[in-house]
Amino acid sequence: MVDHVLIARGAVPVRLPVPARLGRALVLAAVFVCAACGLVYELELVALASYLAGTSSVTEASVVLSVMVFAMGVGSLLAKGLRRRAALGFALTEAALALTGGLSAMALYACFAWLGPSPAAPAAFAFAIGVLTGAEIPLLMTLIQRVRRQDAGGAVADLFAADYVGALAGGLAFPFLLLPCLGQLAGALVTGAVNAVAGGAMVLGLFHRDLTARSRCLLLVANLLVLAVLATAAACAGTFERAARDALYGAGARPAGGTGAQEVALTGGTPGRPLRVFVGGHQIARAGSALPAALTDPAMSAGPHRRVLLLGGGDGLTLHRLLAFPGVASVTVVGPDTGLLRAARTDPDLTALNGHAFADPRVRVRRSDPFDWLRTAEPGARYDVVIADLPAPVLDPDAYCEEFYGLLRRTLPPTARVAVAAGPPGPTLWTIDAGLRAAGLRTLPYRAGPDGFVLAGERPPALPASATAGVRPVTVRSPSGVPPSTLLRPRFGG
């Protein structure tokens, strides 16, 4: 990435209310804060775009970052016309950036709730935020040269050092402070407020003599309006979330835990309305669904099933089905500590739906990413049946790659069976089938209604006669030459 820097040759030094060295430090401090805010907006867009669109994070990150970097170049060029009034231009740019970035999370969520998934909305916000961010450096370069003239190389080094260190602070604050403490909506609003205060205070405090009385009044009013809008949005966030949730799931939806991409919501549960479970706006389970039986019964009915490993299945429905089989001595559930897993153990409606499965003494929960857990699993760990009830491949491609199945194979004795949910028969199912075969397992794709699955093992698997009614092999032959998905070459598109 190339940052465009415009050097203010011949800039007239400005009289500051503080010594030049202190003034320069204050400008660099503002650069630090604004850079941190800018990266928070960027990460917020990537995170929201990924889970709202329901596509892979690689796809959405590529689109958002590419558009934003391009827009930064556009912003740098547009800033050339603002250098004559750099102080006013920078303050107005930061006010616009604070408003746009602060409201971006709420606006994207509103678009998703009322208009449906669309890649255009994240791209539009990425472009707007990129243009405003790109205008910062040329204007700041002009301002810092007006504080104290120095060689261009030294000024660029100081500005970029403050900018990049600020980006580091923003990048760490987003996952470790803002998301856990405030969530995505409130986190973006607070970041916008900090951004507006930092930009406005720096210009009005240091460069007020550069501004006319009318310009100072304009900046003060603009920043107060931005803060008022952000404060109003924060006050209405609860009402907004309830309205958006009703638009997404229907009237009567209620949260059951988690935030952002892991927000769990429940609907129904009344006569005529079966209970449905949503995570991040996407339905993952409902009362009366035949999916848990179709996934588990062929593998469980085909042989011994004393020890069972369940990868994923945080809603507890698949676990409930497994525990119903006679002879099950233990079920190890491996999944991250998400809002879904916590809701499945504590929410009254969801625990009633899953039969309080997590309270069964035979269940052991391992809060870990399945891939990481398999890498560090005890060498002697062996399971009669492994059930993979994981997020869709496009959301978690690592859990469907050849390397993942190779690690999984280490936990299988010769008679063990593996069942993987693979979506409707098509390219995704055949790619999963190829990954299992590349790991050395024998496979049998099967279907139940519109949904596809793959049964695998060290020995050629077969569908037992006692399996759930409606389960039958996939009769369409696998296309020749379908390659497996790997860590270095994932084959599940966004």
From TrEMBL:
The keyword Amino-acid biosynthesis does not apply. Keywords: Membrane, Polyamine biosynthesis, Transferase, Transmembrane, Transmembrane helix. The chain crosses the membrane at residues 22-41, 61-79, 91-115, 121-144, 156-179, 185-207, 219-240. Pfam families: Spermine_synth. It comes from the Bacteria. The active site is at 389 (proton acceptor). Residues 290-467 form the PABS domain. Residues 466-494 are annotated as: Disordered. The keyword Glycoprotein does not apply. Belongs to the spermidine/spermine synthase family. This is Spermidine synthase.
